[in-house]
Amino acid sequence: MSKKNKLTKKQFSVAIEGDTERPFTGIYNIEKRKGSYVCVVCDSKLFSSSTKYESGTGWPAFYAPYSDNAVSNHQDNSHGMERIEVKCKECDAHLGHVFNDGPQPSGLRYCINSVVLKFIEEK
Fold first, then answer.
1. Disulfide check for 47: which of 62, 72, 75, 83 has CB 3.0–4.6 Å away?
2. Among residues 26, 55, 56, which one has the least CA distance to residue 118?
């Protein structure tokens, strides 16, 4: 089965085509339960709820990925901005962007689209 057939239209638009969901519309923006966030395309673990925080930006924010091998960073000069795009290291799905204005210990803010995540609650 192709990625397009597995994903909803919005998931495909963000994960494969690099689109962005509107702020404050994602289902995980205010998620408070303990668990892991996995890639909607390949089910790779991307982020842990233990690194999630409220950034006020309208998207789920994390100060670190699940592991060093979870995500990859890429220069993004689209839309007249210089940003660092974050992708799933396993399948190359677009997740969001990372900024240098997050909390310690990393000082990073991984600003991630809810639509490209699946939440697995910790039992």
1. 62
2. 26
Tell me the catalytic residues.
111
The span from the CA of 63 to the CA of 92, in Å, is 20
| φ, ψ at 14 (rounded to 5°) | -85, -55
10 sits in which H/E element: helix 9-15
Q: What is the pLDDT of residues 105-119, one digit of tens each?
A: 999 999 999 999 999
**For residue 73, what is the enclosing H or E element?**
strand 71-76
Is the C-alpha dihedral spanning 78, 90, 38, 3 positive or negative? positive
pLDDT, tens digit, for every residue of 88-110? 999 999 999 999 999 999 999 99
